[in-house]
Amino acid sequence: MNMYGFLMGLGWLYCSYGLKQLQSETAVCQIDVDYISFFWLIFTIAGSKLFQKIVRNTWEGNASHGALYGTFLYICLISNYCDVYKIVNRLSFYFPVLYFFIRLGNFYNSEHYSVRSANYIQLYEGLLQGPVTLLCIYLYGEKDSIWIFMLLTLSIRIYFEFLRDAFDYKNIIIPIIMIITFYFLESILCFKTGIYLIFMLDIMCKLYIDDSLTHRNYGFNLSLLNNNNYTLRNKIIHLCLFPIVFYYNIGVILGAFSNLLERLINGYVTDYITIPLFPFNRYSFNIADILVTLGIVWDIYNRFIL
Question: Membrane spanning segments where (predicted)?
C-alpha cells in the first residue's frame, strides 16, 4: 500500500470525525456530514490526479497542489449548504494533524529530503505542527483561528523551502497566495468565487505546467506586440495599461494581477493555450488573458450597449 496515500487517508478520517463532532454540537450543514466528508475526499483525489495528468502528463502519483485546488473548489461549492467559515475555524486544530500525516508520508517516500544539509526537513516541518495544534486549540472557536493556522503552517513551509537542495520560488508563491486567500475567505465565499477559482487555476498552471507545453509571451494580452524580447516599448505599454484595468471589474483585476505578478518575476508571461489560426500565425494565451478580455468586453457592453 502507498504509505503517503494511507497516511493522508488517516488525516482525512480524523478531520471527518471532527466534522461529525462539530455537527452534533451545532448544526453547521443542511445535509448529512457523511456525504460532505465523502465528496471532499472525491474532490481531493480528483484534483490531485487531474493536476498530475495535466501538468506532468502522467496518472502515476499525486499532485498536492491539485488536491489543494480540489479542496478549495469543494469549499466554494458547499458554501450554500454549510457554514463553511464556521467549519474551518472550528476544525482549525484538526488540520495540523492532517498536515503532519502528509509530511510523514513525504518522509516515508524520501521526498523533500535535503542532501546538502542532511536534514529530514519534511519531518521537522511535520513535527512543528504540534505547537500549531496547541495554539489552535487555545483559540478554539475564535473567528480567525483558521487564518492563524494557515499563516503559521505556510510560513513554516516557506522557511523550509529555503533549506532544500535547490530553491525554487514557485514553491512559495502558492503558500503566499493561500495565506491571503484564507485571510479574505469570508469575503471570497460571498463574492465572485467562480472568478477567483479561475484565477487560482491560472496561477497554478503558470507555475507547474511542463515548459515544453508553454510559450513565453513578452508582449501583451493574446500575444499582441510579442517580439520575443521584453523591450522598452513593452514596458511602456504595460505601465500605461495595467493601472487602467483596475478601473474595471474583479475578473479584469485578478487576470491582470496574475500576469503582472509573473512579469515582475520573469519579465514574461507563460502562455499555455495555443490556437493556430493560420499556417503562418498562431495566438498563444492563458486563462488570465481570457479573464481580462471577457471582463473588458462585458464592461464595454454594459456601459455603451445596454
Answer: 87-108, 120-140, 146-163, 172-199, 236-257
Q: Which of 146, 161, 191 is the last residue of a domain?
A: 191
Q: Are residues 119 and 265 in the same domain?
A: no
**pLDDT per residue of the chain (306 residues) written in tens, 0 to 9:** 477 778 888 888 888 888 888 888 887 888 888 888 888 888 888 888 877 776 666 666 666 777 878 888 888 778 778 888 888 888 888 888 988 888 888 788 777 666 555 567 778 888 888 888 888 888 776 667 888 888 888 888 888 877 776 767 677 777 777 777 777 776 666 655 666 677 777 777 777 776 666 667 665 554 444 455 555 555 555 555 555 555 545 666 667 677 776 766 666 777 767 666 555 555 666 777 777 777 666 666 666 665
Regarding whether 248 and 163 lie in a shared domain, the answer is: no
Domain interval for residue 301 = 212-305
User: Would residue 226 count as lying in a domain?
Assistant: yes
C-alpha–C-alpha distance, residues 224 and 231, integer Å:
13
In a domain, 207, yes or no: no
Whether 85 and 170 share a structural domain: yes
What DSSP assignment string belongs to 219-268?
SSGGGTT--SS--HHHHHHHHHHHHHHTTS-HHHHHHHHHHHHHHHHHSS
3-state SS assignment for residue 29: strand
